[in-house]
Every structure is written in structure tokens, then in C-alpha cells.
Design brief:
This protein is mostly beta strands and 70 residues long. The chain contains no helices and five strands. Bound molecules: zinc ion (2 copies).
């Protein structure tokens, strides 16, 4: 239920560089603490524990490809 699209930069494991990540619409009720971020370039989704996000530490717990029909 966020009004604006949140965005930030993370080191994308697929692009192997710092890329812009946006927060897709949360379907799991995380609200502002939603840990899901998606790379705008390749669509790789990161699961970021927001308790670590305040610092430099970003814990990537899973990486998945967003289903996309080319
Ligand atoms: Zn990427
Ligand atoms: Zn979520």
C-alpha cells in the first residue's frame, strides 16, 4: 500500500554491477518493510532483510528470476 514506487541501488548479482532496484507491488502484506526488490535491468529479485538495510550490509537470501516472456 505504498503511494510512490520505492527505489534504491544494490549490487545486482546478475548484472554484476550497481543497478537500480525498485520495489514491486507487495502481495504478501509486508507494507513498508517489504524485503522484495527487483532489478530494473534484468528483473532479478533480491530478498533484502530491512533490518540490515540501514548499513552497508545487505543480505541476499535468495535470488530468483522474474518470470518474463521475451
Ligand atoms: Zn540486474
Ligand atoms: Zn512484500
Amino acid at each position: 500500500m505504498t503511494d510512490a514506487t520505492r527505489e534504491t541501488t544494490y549490487q545486482c548479482p546478475t548484472c554484476r554491477r550497481l543497478e537500480l532496484f525498485v520495489q514491486p507491488q507487495c502481495e504478501e502484506g509486508h507494507g513498508e518493510q517489504c524485503p522484495d526488490w527487483a532489478c530494473v535491468i534484468c528483473g532479478t529479485a533480491l530478498f533484502v532483510d530491512t533490518s540490515f538495510a540501514a548499513g552497508e550490509q545487505v543480505q541476499v537470501e535468495k535470488v530468483r528470476k522474474a518470470p518474463r516472456v521475451a
